[in-house]
Amino acid sequence: MNNSAPNSANTSADTDRKYVLHPFTNLSGHEDLGPFTIVGGEGIYVDDDKGNRLVEAMSGLWCTSLGFSESRLVDAAMAQFKKLPYSHLFSHRSTQPAIELSERLVEIAPEGISRAFLVNSGSEAVDSAIKMVWYYFNALGLPKKKRLIARKRSYHGVTVAAGSLTGLPYAQNGFDLPAIDVMHCETPHYYRNGRDGESEAEFTDRIVNELEQQILDADPDTIGAFFAEPVMGAGGVLIPPAHYFEKVQAVLKKHNILFVADEVICGFGRTGNMWGCDTYNIKPDMITCAKQLSSAYQPIGAVLISERMYDAFVSGSNTHGVFGTGNTYGGHPVASAVALETLNIYRDDNMLEHVRTVSKTFMKRIGEFGSHPLVGDARGIGLIGAFELVKDKSTKEQFPPSDKVAAQVMAAARQHGLITRALPGDGVGVCPPLIITETQINDMFDRYQLALDTVHQKLSG
Ligand SMILES: Cc1ncc(COP(=O)(O)O)c(C=O)c1O
Predict the structure, then answer these.
(1) Cα within 13 Å of Cα(363), Cβ side
(2) Residues 218 and 308 in one domain
């Protein structure tokens, strides 16, 4: 690796230290470490300001599905900038890109979804969905049904309401969250939460029974919706056990609780189907999505809702005058045009087929890491996965948090030209751009191997 920084890079690193407040960053640590600055990219690779080319094995933040040099998206943005750089969707106004994108989203959405509400990010999608749950039950004359359920270790974003749903302490500590009425239920992570001697099916039944008991204890008439990522991403890439979602949905249906599928990571092919809902037989009342919707080339997200909810919104709006929520940039024409072109590329390039094909190599390679001395659990689906690092494979004993072992792997990976991410529970994430080829998958996992070996040698030496 080339570690001699040109002067301009040094200067901009100093300027960064001086002026930039970084999200999800240890602020005092940043004063020592400085920024890791990316200056360009091509395909699945990004280039840093020191001249290194790295495999972007996290697709940025689980989002750059088409990699870093898709000219069709650049052209779509330019064409729309020239035609109409801005307009909005308030008060009956509309634009052609927003109309076409909404139609396409409904066309590809799971059965029963009939409208799209365009926003700018995943957090905004989740926040809007929370407001819609409340609006829906008010319109139905069930104003007590306002509490929400999310899972421990879930990630639903950072705004005050979405950040309250998020079940990860590091995203709440110091911010007085949760700030709305949220109940967190058990994480469907058999490897870590299954009891001794408990089969996966028994584990699933137990946590679904516990969920129902929580609902009964809290009073089902006070609970509006259950929010869930089909595969929990930022919490550690936690793959649900077989039939977990069918069983959860049966409980929710019994108690008239809506199912909101947070597809911000899973949506648009990540699990090998268009939606995580398709992969796990989820019949959602609402979907939140973002990220791969535009391959992250423009900030855009959406809330997709069922006709049943839409009908209630119409009756609510008859009472209240307007459906009083939305954002200046929601459905921005340039972002919508780029999202539409992203969906065109998925279709033209048979992206789902591609993911299913290369996923075979991805899953084979990830599975082989199960025998690595540092890896307790190696898991994945489609093109998303993780390794869970343990001190003792037979007892699943974890490393002391102070060892920061996943962060050590992340740092070692960088030395081997690989960008990965440390996840809660000593997880190390794998989430490459969907365009990755079989050869590149093998090369990427060879680099993971080197990173794990480096840390293992250090720990055992
Ligand atoms: C499942 C899920 N929901 C919501 C969000 C929040 O999205 P954003 O960062 O665009 O606000 C994320 C971000 O990673 C996510 O993974």
Answers:
(1) 11
(2) yes
